[in-house]
Amino acid sequence: MLNWTLALPEIVLGVSGLFILLGGVIPKKESFFPVSMAVIGALILAAVLVLGQGEGTAFLGQYVADNFSRFAKVLILLGAALGLLLALDFNEKAGLGRFEYPVLMLFATLGMMVMVSANDLMSLYIGLELLSLSLYVIAAFDRDNPRSAEAGLKYFVLGALASGLLLYGASLVYGFAGTTNFDRLADALSGDDVGTGVVVGLVFVLAGLAFKVSAVPFHMWTPDVYEGAPTPVTAFFATAPKVAAIALLMHVLIGPFGDLSAQWMQVIWVCSAGSMILGAFAAIGQRNIKRLMAYSSIGHVGYALMGLAVANDTGYRGVLVYMAIYVVMNLGTFAVLIAMRRRGRALEQVEDLAGLGKTDPAMALWMAVFMFSMAGIPPLAGFFGKLYVFLAAVQGGFWTLAVIGIVTSVIASYYYLRIVKVMYFDAAPDGALDARPASLTVVMASTGLLTLLFFLFPAALIGAAQVAVASLAG
Amino acid sequence: MEIALPLAIGVLVAAAAYLLMARDLPRGLLGFVLLGTAANLTIFAAGRIGTMTPPLVAPGAQALEAGAANPLPQALVLTAIVIGFGLASFALVLLRRAHAEFGSVMSEDMQEAEPPLAAAPPAEPAPTPPPARPRPVPAPAALREVV
Amino acid sequence: MSIAPSLALGLPLGLGLAGAIAATMMKRGVAQAGAAVAALAFLLYLLAAPGVTETTDLRFGFWSVPSLGVVGGLRLDGLSLVFVLLITGIGALVLLYASRYLKGDTRLPRLVTLLLIFMVAMLGAVTADDVVTLFVFWELTSLASFFLVAYDHEKPGARKAALQALLVTGGGGLALLAGLILVAMAAGTTSLSGIIAAREAVLAHPAAIPAMLLVVLGCFTKSAQFPFQFWLPNAMAAPTPVSAYLHSATMVKLGIYLLARLNPVYQHEAFWQELLTTAGLLTTAVGAIYALRESDLKRVLAWTTVTALGSLTMLIGLAPALSATAAVTFLLVHALYKAALFLVAGIVDHETGTRDAAALGGLRRAMPLTALAAVLAALSMAGLPPFVGFVAKEIIYEAKLATGGAAGLFASIGFLVNAAMVAIAGLLSWRLFFGPLRPTPATPHDPPKSMLAGPILLAGLGLLAGAAPSLVGAWLVDGAVAAMLGAPAAVPLKLWHGFTPVLALSAATIALGLLLLLAWGRLMPRLRRASAFDRFDTARLYDRALAGLVAWAEGTTRLVQHGSLRGYMQVLLLVAALGPLAVLVARGGLDLPEAAPLDFRALAFLPIALGAIAAAVARGTLAAVMATGLVGFGTALVFLTFGAPDVALTQFTVEVLLIVILATVLIRLPVRARDVRTGRQRTVDAAVAGALGLSVALVLLAVLAAPFDPRLGEWFGAESVPGGHGRNVVNVILVDFRALDTLGEIAVLAIAAFSVIALLRASGRGARVGS
């Protein structure tokens, strides 16, 4: 009945978290580096366990492990491990080298895994809070920077409100169906008339999750938090938690609320269109790259949601493919941004990239690859991400959404290409960049190669996404 | 009861929202605590109320007698109360930290993340967008050179 | 003799890529090596040419995504053959030219790499047999063009031109993608030959017209058709070899290629014909007028290229076999003479230090071989016999006169435009090289052989082809025409048609052209000053649109993302309030729960409501904290009253703890205790809050009005003792049935505690601001 072995990855991650915490607390000296290494080890171990995991439900149906959760979890663990790798050097230099950082990232990851596997509204809420709490803290982690405190506070206040909305929505759904379990909800909500409470409840659950994926109109926190938080934190925010939230959104909408798709499709449609439009236009005037990346991420979520709005298997597969590619591109971009330091000062403005093509051709090349990919220029990975959701939208007859997607891609390509222009054609300021740690080079090169060469082996990712979708919808 | 409790929750939520929109963060924090309470009461109400009998299986009986309160929402509320407490304590520390950084607890004083080229962000945006003020917006130098 | 399709189709791409990579590492002879690669590719295609006729083609498929119905592959038919020979042949000559033109420039390896990448992209685009491959290579050419135009990136003009070209063609490319997806969906295949075979299905699709418009939009931007023509002259900021290669001979013809490729699908559609002929005609006129307004040699050439592209578009729209033959012939002719003239312009610029036509003259003596190339090419451009340009012009006039009703309009505009072309041709040969020698910044002399080879060879080919038009027809034109029309239909090419009206028209054209040439010195400045033409300059629209977009985007962003937490909160709460109310209205009002009579227990709700109101209106923070406590105790009372003693106890304990902590911390903060909102703000906030409260209450009422499924609660009640061995059902649920939640709850609490410690540790040393 309990099948607790299904949750082995989470259990192992949680227990190693506790041990790593002890290992970090006991020594007198700051133990950021060894603790980080241990956390990365634990994340990899968990990923291995996830890959070898069986399928089924555990804890009286509160927890589910299947191909879908496996896909999302591997992506999350990969994103988290690389995200921590990005922080190693930066945090030491920026005075953020405290062991709490990796431990919080581990707990955040644990929360994400619980979210993905949650098969019950209450478990979902708990996983979300587990994640959110850790994120609130690491957003405010930089004690020397008031903007970091501001970021943490804004994120907390708005995030808490969103969690509140989600909890309120969940209780409305419970009030109608008498259960919080996804499978039983799916049965209870299969009738023709589901009642006002359920519809409102669904909207509020959606609102809470839309906040986490920073989709319009729940995106407001994103630019301020992305800009204010330390850059590795921003990189983490932009990757793993987004995957978790999107996966959760899919799980909730397709599972328990599957029969209400007529209702939620409209909501997702609006969120998708709004996010694409805002992401394209608002980024145009930005000069701080982190802020620009915030709007970029809003736009990308819009494209991913397009696949969800279509509400068929092709669309869902498009979402998964898009998110996987998105994570890889973003990690690479942030690796470049984190490496941008001159005389010990972190550089965050678009102008700071000027002349990178001359001063650091290798890094400029990777950055160009990521920017072209984000702009959706073939044959880079980002193009295929867009292609699959656009195809799904067109096949599903969502013309307007597809056209909005294409138009906003054109507009968004403007600011991505502007970065390339600045790198290659603007005059370089004095002084070379600081030496780049090997960890960043590893992340840059690996994600860069994946982005560059994706078109040679698209079947691997698409096949995995297909299998994942099959277990979700089937 | 089915009418009185929703009304009470409505009042509670309205008060919470009013506090959340306040310009000082301590009031916002209180609003947040009230909102949590309202959510807990909603869960409790959603499981239907009316009876006064607690969900205890009588000694000797094997199952709960009919007419006892619904046990599930109670369990959920217990979980939610504890989480809410954790969040509230955390929020308090965050508030203290923000006060240490900014020397203020006014949310308006914390807008350092705004783009510097914004001449003056509308100090008090009404919930409906204010009428557009025609203001020549200078394109940033980097862009003017490109376009 | 013929070679395997895989060699003919795959190898040139591979060679080009390998060459591009090798070029980055080479120090010397890099352009010569690049030229050799292009020449080798040319040879491969030439070897494959016998396998390509009006009815046969070569195919080489290499990838597929069956789940999407996407099949990719390469295919060489008559139309593709014309393009690949132009691309590789002119590519080889241009690279050879660049080896000298940019001698000593440290950026030469980069230029060669980009040119080879561009060549591969072009070859891929014109041999692709599926829309995805086509699109990928199509956009790659735009990208390569971006980097090539911005070659002199220290010049702001070059950067601006590069971005402009990229935004226009890249944007059009996305429209093309949308169109191609639609077309492919309608046809049920992504294969281009499949799409042409499924012609009826494509035309019958409900979105057939939008799909066609999107495709045409992509082609028009790429091939600089009105109103997108403005990017092409600006792209002349690129080095001359690049202009000769990309912006006259190859890339700008990619749009023409796709129009020709898809012509079998749309050729009988009146809308297609009208769209192409109108746009083409307008483009020729705009190009001719603007060409006469310029004196910079390269810009003059760019505008004549616009004219030529317009003619090609128009000819594709003129459906019948005659015009298709004319289009293919003119395409070849134009590529030959225009590339030659560009290279000549480059030589003149290189040797004299200026490319202002008004300041040049009499160069014949100093650079006789250059003059020869210029004259040969110009004669072809002017359409004089026995050059192939004459053949093309004759057949174009024939095609125009054969259009029936609108023949007069087509012929008269064509007449004027052609006269302008004759004048320009004279300008580039007669005025530049004959007459009195004018002083120039540098002392001119003929350049070395490597730079002369290209123009002389290309111009000479024009003469040769003119001498034997039927051979050219049999080798190249017939196959391409068959591909354009879907069946073999080419009209035989002849140099001499006898004394026909067309010949008279030709003679008149030349006469008027010569008059224009004589008047050029006075005409050009006047035309330039005539501001009437500026109004039609769509470049201004583009500039204004882009600047407006940026300004608008910034303004709106600042309005929406004002950074005020309070503002965000108001928006969120308002959405949360109005959303459910909208749902309620949409679903037709509200069912109220059956009202049980109120009894004394309702009093339990009183502390909650009173406490909440008190907390909201309390003047001091501490008073508000106390009122919050009252709400908490009231809640505990409700739990106690309605059968939840455990919950009541927990709520009570937690509330005491929370109030103590809150009071302790908040008292220590030296803060203004009063609510600092102004009266108006309070009113607004109260309205939003009231709406939210109302919405919550109404929705909750609606939920409670619905019947409740009590089975799950009953199941827990029944299973508690046998399954969980406990009599307190709530406890059993917490520690047994829903142990996972409880575990998670503990984890949340633990992390909250950990976070508190982490934050305190973080601010321990950091609390230097303020206090």
TrEMBL record, chain A:
Keywords: Cell membrane, Membrane, NAD, Quinone, Translocase, Transmembrane, Transmembrane helix, Transport, Ubiquinone. Its EC number is 7.1.1.-. It is found in: Cell membrane; Endomembrane system; Membrane. It is an enzyme of class 7 (translocase). HAMAP family: NDH1_NuoN_1 (MF_00445). Belongs to the complex I subunit 2 family. NDH-1 is composed of 14 different subunits. Subunits NuoA, H, J, K, L, M, N constitute the membrane sector of the complex. This is NADH-quinone oxidoreductase subunit N. It comes from Falsiroseomonas bella. The lineage of its organism: Bacteria, Pseudomonadati, Pseudomonadota, Alphaproteobacteria, Acetobacterales.
From TrEMBL, chain B:
It is found in: Cell membrane. The keyword Secreted does not apply. It is a multi-pass membrane protein. The chain crosses the membrane at residues 6-22, 29-49, 75-95. GO terms for cellular component: plasma membrane. Residues 107-147 are annotated as: Disordered. Residues 118-139 have a biased composition (Pro residues). This is Cation:proton antiporter. It comes from Falsiroseomonas bella.
Automatic annotation (TrEMBL), chain C:
Residues 681-761 form the MrpA C-terminal/MbhE domain. GO terms for cellular component: plasma membrane. InterPro entries: CPA3_Na-H_Antiporter_A, MrpA_C/MbhD, MrpA_C/MbhE, ND/Mrp_TM, Proton_antipo_N. One of its GO terms (biological process) is monoatomic ion transport. The chain crosses the membrane at residues 30-48, 82-99, 111-128, 134-151, 163-189, 201-221, 242-260, 272-293, 300-322, 328-348, 369-388, 408-430, 451-476, 496-520, 567-586, 598-617, 624-642, 648-671, 683-706, 746-764. It is a multi-pass membrane protein. Keywords: Antiport, Cell membrane, Ion transport, Membrane, Transmembrane, Transmembrane helix, Transport. Its main location: membrane. It holds the Pfam family MbhD. The keyword Transmembrane helix applies. PANTHER family: NA(+)/H(+) ANTIPORTER SUBUNIT, NA(+)_H(+) ANTIPORTER SUBUNIT A. This is Cation:proton antiporter. It comes from Falsiroseomonas bella. The lineage of its organism: Bacteria, Pseudomonadati, Pseudomonadota, Alphaproteobacteria, Acetobacterales.
